[in-house]
Amino acid sequence: MGAISGLVSLLSLITIATVNIEDKAPQFINETQWIKGKAPVFEKSITIVELWKTSCGVCKEQIPHLTSLQKTYGDRISIVALNTEPIDVLKQFMKEHGDEIGYTVGHVSKDVVSRFIEGKQSIPYSYIIDKKGILLWKGHPATIDDVLGRILAGSFDVKKSMTITSLENALIEAMGTNQVTSISRAVKDLLSFDPGNAKALEVGIDIAKYNKDPDYLKEIFDKVPLAGLSTSNADKFAVMLISDSDPAYRYPDAALKFADYALKKEPENSGYINTYARLLYSRGDLENAVIWQKKALKLDPNNKTYKDNLNYYLSIKTPGAGNQKK
User: Fold this and answer.
1) Which terminus of the chain has fewer CB atoms gathered within 10 Å of its CB, N or C?
2) Whether residue 319 has pLDDT greater than 70
3) What is the reported pTM?
């Protein structure tokens, strides 16, 4: 299956949770030892609960993502990461990496976690809880951005979300079969109902590459509506469409559409500006790529990636400079 099978590692992390959408969220606050931050107050903000472990590589990959969400939305959300490992292990991890985590961390028993998730523990897994303590959404934290944006904008439809979850689970099951026909059908069903579904679009790119059909990639991304699209997903799509090592599976025109949308919504977001600079570079507009990369670095002067990108663009502009591949 090649590229398609590579996505199983992400999608197979999801398991069936005991608590259902529209249920009252499980109790955990009074049984948690808070290692960093304070207990959330449901009435004051949207609460995101993440189950994780320090020994989980994918969990650690989500730390910058969740930290960015907490920084972006501020006191409108409260991210709470719950961990069941021996407390000395958790405390040692926090001693070494606590500064990288910009949200609340708590230690709980396996009994508490069992109220959220059933069977063999599969992580990371996240839950969004509203101000009344009702569960609105559950899933992998890598896919949380779009739904969180809609919840905060007041445009979230619980019933539609439940249907999407069902279709996403069908895609997960299809991925487990490793059969292109089944996976393609599941992607089609999901995109027919939710054209901007990030998970389906990511798998769709691999389907296009597997079938050697770059037009399929253009077809599915042309149907993504901007209305209601979260800026984080717009930025993600832009990056996806300019990053492939094979130019046949890049789509810079659509990437520009998504990058423009994200920047118009959040013009001071350094990450989106960095993406825009990459897009300009990929389109051959090196002069403006430098200008925009400098804007990103001005907003986040300690960001090593931004510095490296700027130095690379400048090296290309300098005659005789080494143009190592990015």
Assistant:
1) C
2) no
3) 0.70
